[in-house]
Amino acid sequence: MRTLARHAPALVVAMIFLVPLLVMITGSLRPVDLAPPVGLELFPPQPTLDSYVRLAELVPLWSWLANSALVVAVAVPITVLVASWAAFGIRLLDRRARRIAIVTVVALLLVPETMPALLIATGAMLSLHTAANLVLFPWGYDSDVQAPNDEGLRAHAFRASHYNGYVTGQPGEVLYNASGTTDDWTYDILGIASGTWELGPGSGTCAGLPP
Question: In terms of domains, do 88 and 148 share one?
Answer without folding.
Answer: no
